[in-house]
Amino acid sequence: MKTIALFLLLPIFINAQESEVKKSHFVALYTVGSLWDMDKAPNDQPYFKEHSAFLSKLRKENAIVMGARYSDTGMIVLQAADLESAKSLLLEDVALKNQLFNVEVHPFNVFYKGCFD
């Protein structure tokens, strides 16, 4: 009898574990910080190469879902457990620590599910 009950409850336990692992999406908006020198090309900015390497690492870890630029703003969509986790992850970037860039992080709620996975 116990075996049958466990068998029937197994899908509930599996589903509960999957929801705990599921991550939310967040958008990070990057603008230039106080260290940015407008007279230098991006690759000549201090910490820019480290910033690029940091984002590359996040892409390889599948934390970054997509990235883009518009106007003077860089944008990435990333996956994290919650908003604080997303902010903490990005604040590991030496370019943010040294104010080459500023970043704002917001929840990213998809309302049209065919365009974004």
What can you tell me about this protein's structure?
The chain has helices at 2-21, 48-60, 83-90, 94-97; strands at residues 24-32, 64-70, 73-80, 101-107. The chain has one domain (22-107): Dimeric alpha+beta barrel (Alpha-Beta Plaits). The mean pLDDT is 86. The relative contact order is 0.23. 38% of the residues lie in helices and 26% in strands. A four-stranded antiparallel beta sheet has the order 2-3-1-4. It is of the alpha+beta class and 117 residues long.
The number of helical segments is 4
Q: How many domains, in number, for the residues?
A: 1
Question: Structural class given helices, strands, pairing?
Answer: alpha+beta
How many angstroms does the end-to-end distance come to? 42 Å
- The order of strands across the largest sheet is 2-3-1-4
Instruction: Estimate the strand proportion.
Output: 25-35%
Largest sheet: 4 strands, antiparallel
Shape: globular
On the 0 to 100 scale, the average pLDDT is: 86
Total strand count, please? Answer: 4
Helix content: 25-40%
Order of helices and strands: HEHEEHHE
What distinguishing features does this structure have?
117 residues, alpha+beta, Alpha-Beta Plaits, 4-stranded antiparallel beta sheet, 38% helix
Short description:
The chain has one domain (22-107): Alpha-Beta Plaits, CATH 3.30.70.1060. 38% of the residues lie in helices and 26% in strands.
Write the layout of secondary structure elements.
Layout: H1 2-21, E1 24-32, H2 48-60, E2 64-70, E3 73-80, H3 83-90, H4 94-97, E4 101-107
Antiparallel strand pairs: 1-3, 1-4, 2-3
